[in-house]
Amino acid sequence: MVEERRRKTLPFIKTDQEIEQDEHHRIEEPPSISYHNDRGNQHQQRNSQSHSKHHHHHRHRQHHRPSHRPLALPHSPESLEPTGAADSVGSLTAGTDSPQQLNSDESDSNRATAEAMAARFHPPSHLRDEAETLKSHRHSVGFDVPGAVHTIITPNRMGVKADRPLDSKLAVIMVGLPARGKSYIVKKLRRYLNWLQYETRVFNVGNLRRVNEASQQHDQSANFFDPDNTDMKRIRDDLAIQVLDQMIDWLKQGGRVGVHDATNSTVERRKLLIDRLRKEPEIKVLILESVCTDKMVLERNFRLKLFGPDYKDRDPAEALLDFKSRVDNYERAYESVGDWEEEQDIQFCKLINVGKKVIAHNISGYLSGQCIFYLMNFNLAERQIFITRHGESMDNVTGRIGGDAPLSEKGRKYARALERFVSQQRASFAYDLASRKVKEEDDWRSYGLEPLDGKKESETIDTRTTQEKIDAKAKELSSGQFTVWTSMLKRSMATAANFDPDVYDIKHIRFLNEINSGMREGMSYEEIQRFYPEEFHTRQSNKLYYRYPGMGGESYIDVIHRLQSMIIELERMTQSCLIVTHRVVMRIILGYMLDWSQKEMPHMLVPIHTVYELRPKPYGTELKKWQYIESVDSFVEF
Ligand code: F6P
Q1: Which of 176, 190, 264, 272 is deepest in the core (most CB within 10 A)?
Q2: What is the Å distance from ligand 1's center to 188 Cα?
């Protein structure tokens, strides 16, 4: 079952070259792709360049971290190349913000700014130390958005150090009793931050416990978690510190956000972790506690554990008892985040009942604020998210990019078929969900466990047949709201024109418009390659950061930023929806939902006349794909 899920969530990866071979429509794609934006390279470079020298109280740590990177550069390996190399391509991409171009432009503007600042602010030598201390306090890493914000700094000049941190690093320490949804929260947070280009990794203590030699010598059942058993407690504390050390190493090597995923349920444990982190003044700390008081959600979470790595081969009823006694052990010693953290002035956030209630303390960093805003906006509703590109447009027929062309005849046919398809899928989803829920309740009963619908067996005598129960539930589910979003471009609005506004909640949204290709709007890839070969090559080698020249021209990163509010809205809403958009936007939304790496995302195959259906689940996103077959005027799964 797990394998089946994994298979379903695997991304459908193809390069643009493959698109050429098997795309059934007439859009021309550029040929060979090479990936230059390798984050591994970037890490190595960064690692060798940044070392912490000063140790200060953690509250001020972001102001003190020196950095030896000479200039504020974009988040790509090319950006770390020497200026000379950048100069050689700078002139070829006039008006663009390609990474190389940025390098050259930035170095010039940095140099000019530095000279002006040096002339105005260079203090006499006896005042320099004081002035430098003041300056380093004044600066904050603060607002730091990869690919969109460049911090201008003064380069080293005679005897005066201008070093200071350029990117923020964050250690998120999770807190919460078992089955409070911590792992679910951290997985989502990791996916979101990575999508925003903050490299994020989760460090799970349970995973180490399951393979660690010291803990393997002991029975891993509830006793191992007894707070009065000092030997076991020492083993668990050691594991937590080992994992924290791995996380710190990774952050120092270029990672941006590390998440320490464990119960960390006592002040003593948290003090251990915080004391270790205080030795790393360049890393900010955010404690994130997940609290769940909703009995039904808790019971559901407990039962999900039965399919997890600790219990999967054990008898369900017996495993549930063991797990509940493990939770009791933790509960006896549990100290919620609060007084101690406030005394220490630590940033923390308590998420209560899946974000229904949120308590935040001393949130001072941009990144921490982003995390909390995101976490306040998700829910666990089961739903369908359909996403498709618009039907074939007249520009697709002639192979031109951008523009605002109407649909072709084929495109209009697709639009009619799409409405029929979504309405059928909507009905069958309601039926499947209803059957699954009714069957799940029957399964719990067969394991000797109470149903999860809130009614005890003895209290309810349901005389309906299983089929009657399914039909009633399906009817209830299918009457729920369904949203249709399109971009504000003609081809996308026309693709959704057959949806009845009385049945669907339809919105045209500018954020969903296609990437703006600036001065290259209306050209074909062949023309760009012929007339602007260097520019064409620069984009192919770093599509993520390449910004089209001219007014309004965008990069993938720019589009990611304008889609941020769409992702938050997708997470916030509980109803199913259909998104009709364009190639770049579709790649980016799928990139978020399916956790595609930034390297592969701009090159994924997302042909027109295909529909992706996504179902958010606790363990990831389930994916189904359909292709429209014009000859039979219907969709087939592929
Ligand atoms: O060709 C269709 C299109 O949506 C263009 O409007 C857009 O510029 C292009 O695809 C984006 O794809 P890529 O990033 O692969 O060039």
Answers
A1: 176
A2: 28
Q: What is the chain's mean pLDDT, rounded? A: 77
Per the confidence metrics, is the pTM higher than 0.90?
A: no
Q: How far is the CA of 515 from the centre of ligand 1 (A)?
A: 7
Give Dmax over CA atoms of the chain in angstroms.
Answer: 91
pLDDT, average across residues 557-581? 96
Confidence of residue 235 (pLDDT cuts 50, 70, 90): confident
- Whether pLDDT at 571 is above 80: yes
* Residue bearing the bigger pLDDT, 135 or 217: 217
Cα distance between residue 615 and residue 433, in whole Å = 12
CA distances 487 to 65, 404, 563, Å, are 43, 11, 12
DSSP states along 581-636: E-HHHHHHHHHHHHT--TTTGGG----TTEEEEEEEETTEEEEEEEEEEGGGTEEE
Axis-axis angle for helices 409-446, 466-478 (nearest 10): 140
Is any ligand 1 atom within 6 A of the Cβ of residue 50? no
**Would you name the residues annotated as active-site residues?**
261, 292, 514, 582
Residue 390 Cα to ligand 1 middle (Å): 12
Ligand 1 midpoint to CA 548 (Å): 12
Nearest to 334, CA basis, from 289, 278, 277, 273: 289
- Residue identifier of the C-alpha nearest atom 10 of ligand 1: 583
Report which of 125, 33, 151, 168 is spatially closest to residue 538, judged by C-alpha positions: 33
Give the Å distance between the CA of 583 and the centre of ligand 1.
6
pLDDT class of 419 with cuts at 50, 70, 90 = very high
Res 130 pLDDT > 60: no
Predicted local confidence at residue 207, as pLDDT: 80
Q: What is the pLDDT of residues 594-609, one digit of tens each?
A: 999 989 999 999 999 9
- Atom 7 of ligand 1: nearest residue by CA position: 401
- 535 within ligand 1 shell (Cβ under 6 A): no
- In short, whether 401's Cβ falls inside 6 Å of ligand 1 is yes
- Say if residue 122's pLDDT is above 60: no
Q: How many CB atoms lie within 10 A of CB 439?
A: 12
Ligand 1 neighbourhood includes 583 CB (under 6 angstroms): yes
For a pocket test of ligand 1, which of 582, 598, 604 has the largest count of ligand atoms closer than 8 A to its C-beta?
Answer: 582
Confidence of residue 118 (pLDDT cuts 50, 70, 90): very low
Q: Is 410 in the pocket of ligand 1 (CB under 6 A)?
A: no
Using alpha carbons, list the distances in angstroms from residue 396 to 547, 583, 607.
22, 11, 11
As a whole number, mean pLDDT of residues 507-532 equals 97
How far, in Å, CA of 212 to CA of 370, rounded? 34
Rounded to an integer, what distance in angstroms lies between the CA atom of residue 608 and that of residue 605? 10
Q: 582 CB under 6 A from ligand 1?
A: yes
Q: Which residue has the higher pLDDT, 67 or 238?
A: 238
> Whose alpha carbon is nearest atom 14 of ligand 1?
584
With a 6 Å cutoff on the Cβ, whether 515 touches ligand 1 is yes
Decide: 514 in ligand 1 pocket, CB within 6 A.
yes
CA dihedral 146, 590, 426, 8 (to 10 degrees): -130
Average confidence (pLDDT) over 489-507? 97
For CA atoms 486, 488, 493, 499, give the dihedral sign: positive
